[in-house]
């Protein structure tokens, strides 16, 4: 497709939308003094208290165990779906699975399985299966067809796959699975905030007790854990990790759910109340009430948070894209930049928002800050890696001049493309922030579940999924009109695009 | 064998070669000559299905080698005979080749001078070595016809001449696209010159003179 939109116009349009959103945003700091809270927290993080290490160790072990089993189950299911991704039913199933966020899956699954390991494993496995199916099918499509063609028509499908397809796609698939495990570790930690026994739960209880030192210890261990995934998780040891994780799962005591919880869930709970009560004429008023009372206000708040967060992320990435380039910030500066970006990338946006909420109180501000910083750090990291790979001429300037004259103009295209990739993710995550008490879609969903009105929750969930799919399509359309969607990407660029659209 | 009879060949809508007729007699060795882009690869690609349709066993040496980089040279050579066996047999070969297969594949690798590299992954080999593995795969496969698209382009000239001889003794019939006229003269019984999508000449090798070669490669 011909490039029919200019990048500057797209950026300008997003800025205008953000300015229009600004008056609608609730950015109050709820009356309490943020600096004392911030000070206490900073002291806690700077002097982490490891005395509760046994509790923390178990929470960490369970976080890893949920991530490993969830990603493995999702990966396996995705691998089985990937060859059939061209079928409309498989593609539809995958889109449906991945358009619902892990936390929303968890909220629903908790209704069915209670606080059991299955809720946690499936909450990760179901959306990841949809993502794996898509990405693994892309990897299969991209692989060289030469060896398979060489074999000729008489070779049976199993032989063709094992000899001429699997070896070609295996490295890319293993690499992607490792990346997904990093995502899974974040998802798994965050599941603790809705009650599963992972790091989020531990962090929440430390905060409630005011034990900032212990919370600091949790943070330090968590960042180390995520930053070192590729050291402790090797393809060869993956099976051992999986067995150990499953072994640990069997030690989790869960309160038993009543018999037939699943059946009641699908046969009664999710049926809209008017239909359940045998009054189909009341369905329209019920839907209208739900739409005007929950979905539209939730959607408006979600979009306001997301648009402002996107601008903040873009600003952070624009300024920070050269943070890890030694020619700009010096060797020490680049090392510091790496540290900053690693920390911001490692913490899931939900956890960051939780922290900021402790400081500024409930408003859109913590959510916008968390989303902006986390996503900005991811984009800045991906751009920084590209900037580091640019071939500068020997007499190129250094420092800010290099940033302004070489890096910004050369990377402006990738910058806009990466921001558009993150857009959909920011929307998904903005909806999630509602569980923390900010009035986005997740808030209405969480309240509906809290009131045991699962039928309402399902409709809100479907609306949320539709918005996500719509934004994804819009982002793809804009990228295509910028002339970046149809380009044949190099292998490294494809990996980058996948990570930008990942987690 | 009248392999092509007035066919238009090409990718998608635009034909690269028009109205091609090619008759190959068993025992002939054809060399296709011409500048890059003249249609040699297109012609070879069309010959494979035509030969397969006649029930002939074809060994192929593609220009891009079509090897599996992650597998060892030995296993890439073993791929030459996968269609002779069922899925279980091939699975066992992938895990641990039988003695007889291993000996056969090693012999093919030794004929191209790569016996010592048998267990190295193809991705760690040089361009010329990869090309020789692709040739060894065809030698291991055997067959009535070999189709090769520049199978010796990255091999050093002296070795290339010897390998061309190996091809000539292994396969009764051969069609090779070659860029080296000297090797073509030594190897082929018949030469076909392609230029800008047309057959410029189709001669016994003895009739190939300097004037024709000049015309073939001239701008």
Outline the structure in words.
The complex is a heterodimer of chains A (503) and B (219). Chain A is mainly α and 503 residues long. Chain A folds into two domains: 255 residues, Orthogonal Bundle (MetI-like fold); 209 residues, Orthogonal Bundle (MetI-like fold), CATH 1.10.3720. Chain A is 76% helix and 0% strand. Chain A has 23 helices and no strands. In chain A, helix 3 runs antiparallel to helix 8 and helix 15 crosses helix 21. With 219 residues, chain B is an alpha/beta fold. Chain B is 39% helix and 24% strand. In chain B, the strands form two sheets. Chain B has a six-stranded mixed sheet with strand order 4-5-6-3-7-8, with helices on both faces. The longest helix of chain B has 15 residues. Chain B is globular. The two termini of chain B are 33 Å apart. The interface between A and B is medium-sized, with 20 and 22 residues.
Short description:
Chain A is an all-alpha fold and 503 residues long.
Task: Supply database-style keywords.
heterodimer; A: 503 residues; mainly alpha; MetI-like fold; 2 domains; 23 helices; 0% strand; B: 219 residues; alpha/beta; Rossmann fold; 6-stranded mixed sheet; two-stranded antiparallel sheet; globular
């Amino acid at each position: 497709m011909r490039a029919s939109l200019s990048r500057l116009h797209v950026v300008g349009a997003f800025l205008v939308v953000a300015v229009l959103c600004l008056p609608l945003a609730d950015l109050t700091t709820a009356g309490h003094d943020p600096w004392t809270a911030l000070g206490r927290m900073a002291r806690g993080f700077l002097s982490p208290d490891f005395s509760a290490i046994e509790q923390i160790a178990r929470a960490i072990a369970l976080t890893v165990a949920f991530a490993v089993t969830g990603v493995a189950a999702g990966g396996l299911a995705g691998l089985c779906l990937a060859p059939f991704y061209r079928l409309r039913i498989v593609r539809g199933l995958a889109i449906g699975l991945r358009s619902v966020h892990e936390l929303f899956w968890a909220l629903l699954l908790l209704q069915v399985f209670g606080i059991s390991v299955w809720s946690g494993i499936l909450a990760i496995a179901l959306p990841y299966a949809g993502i794996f199916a898509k990405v693994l099918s892309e990897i299969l499509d991209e692989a060289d067809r030469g060896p398979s063609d060489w074999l000729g028509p008489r070779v049976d499908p199993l032989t063709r796959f094992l000899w001429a397809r699997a070896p070609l796609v295996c490295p890319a698939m293993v690499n992607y699975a490792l990346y997904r495990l990093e995502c899974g570790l974040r998802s798994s930690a965050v599941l603790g905030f809705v009650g599963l026994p992972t790091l989020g739960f531990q962090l929440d209880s430390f905060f409630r007790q005011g034990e900032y030192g212990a919370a600091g210890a949790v943070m330090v261990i968590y960042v180390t854990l995520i930053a070192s995934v590729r050291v402790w998780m090797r393809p060869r040891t993956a099976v051992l990790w999986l067995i150990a994780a499953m072994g640990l799962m069997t030690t989790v005591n869960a309160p038993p759910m009543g018999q037939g919880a699943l059946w009641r869930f699908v046969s009664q709970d999710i049926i809209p109340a008017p239909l359940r009560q045998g009054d189909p004429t009341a369905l329209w008023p019920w839907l209208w009430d739900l739409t005007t009372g929950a979905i539209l206000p939730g959607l408006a708040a979600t979009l306001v948070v997301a648009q402002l967060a996107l601008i903040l992320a873009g600003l952070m990435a624009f300024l920070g894209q050269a943070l890890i380039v030694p020619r700009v910030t010096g060797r020490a500066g680049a090392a510091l930049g790496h540290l900053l970006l690693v920390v911001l990338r490692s913490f899931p946006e939900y956890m960051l928002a939780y922290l900021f909420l402790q400081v500024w109180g409930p408003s859109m501000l913590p959510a916008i800050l968390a989303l902006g910083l986390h996503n900005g750090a991811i984009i800045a990291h991906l751009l920084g890696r590209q900037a580091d790979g640019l071939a500068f001429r020997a007499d190129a300037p250094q420092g800010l001049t290099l940033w302004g004259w070489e890096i910004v103009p050369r990377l402006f295209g990738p910058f806009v493309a990466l921001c558009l990739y993150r857009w959909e993710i920011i929307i998904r995550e903005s909806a999630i922030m509602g569980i923390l008490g900010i009035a986005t879609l997740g808030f209405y969903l969480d309240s509906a579940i809290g009131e045991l009105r699962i039928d309402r929750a399902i409709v809100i969930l479907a609306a949320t999924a539709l918005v996500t799919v719509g934004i994804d399509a819009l982002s793809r359309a804009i990228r295509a009109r910028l002339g970046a969607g149809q380009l044949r990407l190099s292998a490294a660029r494809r990996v980058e695009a996948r990570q930008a659209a990942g987690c | 064998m009248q392999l092509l009879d007035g066919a238009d060949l090409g990718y998608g809508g635009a034909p690269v070669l028009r109205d091609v007729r090619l008759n190959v007699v068993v025992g002939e060795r054809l060399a296709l000559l011409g500048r890059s882009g003249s249609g040699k690869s297109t012609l070879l690609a069309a010959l494979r299905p035509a030969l397969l349709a006649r029930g002939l066993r074809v060994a192929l040496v593609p220009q891009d080698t079509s090897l599996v980089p992650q597998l060892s040279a030995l296993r890439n050579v073993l791929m030459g005979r996968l269609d002779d066996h069922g899925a279980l047999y091939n699975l066992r070969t992938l895990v641990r080749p039988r003695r007889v297969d291993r000996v056969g594949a090693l012999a093919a690798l030794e004929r191209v001078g790569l016996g010592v590299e048998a267990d190295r992954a193809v991705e760690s080999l040089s361009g010329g070595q990869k090309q020789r593995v692709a040739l060894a795969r065809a030698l291991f496969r055997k067959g009535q016809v070999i189709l090769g698209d520049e199978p010796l382009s990255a091999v050093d000239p002296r070795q290339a001449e010897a390998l061309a001889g190996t091809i000539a003794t292994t396969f009764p019939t051969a069609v090779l696209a070659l860029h080296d006229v000297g090797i073509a003269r030594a190897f082929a019984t018949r030469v076909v010159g392609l230029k800008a999508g047309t057959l410029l000449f189709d001669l016994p090798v003895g009739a190939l003179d300097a004037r024709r070669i000049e015309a073939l490669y001239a701008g």
